[in-house]
Amino acid sequence: MKQIGLFGGTFDPLHVGHMVVAECVREAEELDEIWFVPSHIPPHKENASVSSEDRYEMVKEAIATNDRFKVTDIELKRQGKSYTLKTVQELKENHPDCLFSFIVGGDMVDTLGKWYRIEELMDEISFIGVRRPGTTFETSYPLSTVESPLLAISSSEVRERLDNGKTVRYMVPEPVYSYIQRKGLYGC
C-alpha cells in the first residue's frame, strides 16, 4: 500500500518553508509521496489573496522537479469551504490502494480541537505534526511528531514584502517567484 502524506494549506503563496517541511516529513515518516492540497476556501482564514487556480498553478510549477511531490485540485473542484474531513473521505474512496496521513504545522496542531468534526476526522486519518516557531504544540489528539529546520518564513510575510515592493526571491521557489512576476500577483 502506498504511503501518502497530505499537505493541505492555502499556499498563498507556497514558500521554501513549505517545501522543506514536506521533504523532511516525507523522509522522516518514510512516505512514498507528499500530495499538496491547496484549499479552495480555507475554513479557518479569510479568503486567500489570489485565486485558488493561481495558488494551485504555483504549487504545480514549484514541485515539478520532485517526482515524490504531487498536487491535487480536489478541493478546487469541490468548491465551497475546504473541510479536511470531506477531502480525506473523497481521497480514500478514490484511492483505496493508498494509506494517507495528514501533515499539520505547529500552529494548526494548537487548534485541532476547533477543526470541523475533528473526532470523525481522527477516525479517518492519522496526523503528523511539524514544529513551528512560536507555537505551543500542545494537543490531546494523537499525532506523530517530525522535527524540521525552523525557517521563519510565512506566506503573510511574503505577501507583505511584495506589497511593499520588496523582493521575495529565495523565500519562494524560483518557479513561484517567476509565476508571481509573470502574472503580476500580490501587487507586483
Textual characterization of the structure:
By secondary structure, this protein is α/β, with parallel strands linked by helices. The protein has one domain: HUPs (Rossmann fold, 3-Layer(aba) Sandwich). 38% of the residues lie in helices and 18% in strands. The protein contains 8 helices and 6 strands. It has a 6-stranded parallel beta sheet with strand order 3-2-1-4-5-6, with helices on both faces. Helix 1 links the parallel strand 1 (2-9) and strand 2 (33-38). Helix 2 runs antiparallel to helix 8. It starts with a strand and ends in a 5-residue tail after the last helix. The model has no long low-confidence stretch (mean pLDDT 92).
Please summarize what this structure is.
With 188 residues, the protein is an alpha/beta fold. It has eight helices and six strands, in the order E-H-E-H-E-H-H-E-H-H-E-E-H-H.
Query: Order of strands across the widest beta sheet?
Result: 3-2-1-4-5-6
How many strands, what sense, and barrel or not for the largest sheet? 6 strands, parallel
- What sort of overall outline do the alpha carbons produce when their principal axes are compared? globular
Radius of gyration: 16 Å
CATH superfamily: HUPs
What's the total number of strands?
Answer: 6
Number of helices: 8
Oligomeric category: single chain
CATH architecture level-2 label: 3-Layer(aba) Sandwich
Give the uncertain stretches in residue-range form. none
Distance N to C terminus: 44 Å
| CATH domain class | Alpha Beta
- Element-by-element helix/strand order: EHEHEHHEHHEEHH
Strand percent estimate: 15-25%
Mean pLDDT: 92
Count of separate structural domains = 1
What CATH calls the topology is Rossmann fold
Estimated helix fraction:
25-40%
Query: Which structural class matches the secondary elements?
Result: alpha/beta
